[in-house]
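tool=predict chain=A
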Amino acid sequence: RGYEIGVVYMDEFLRSSTALVSPNNTIQIPCGNSSRQNKIQVTIPWAQRAPYWAKHYKFVLTNYRTVFESYCY
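tool=predict ok
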């Protein structure tokens, strides 16, 4: 399965940016591994550093059908 990872920045009122992605933001996990716990380690590239107005951020992960979110405050 293919997954795409992005980062969304939010201001103090939780208004958010669109999901920002980088060229190396996809990962392929074989279907045979679906019975195991899968983990993804994410590093925000320097070029995608937070804008001045951002107070929070979250990671979004999609398998092209469903979007999963992980909030970071």
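The beta strands are 2-10, 26-28, 56-62, 67-72. The chain has no helices and four strands.
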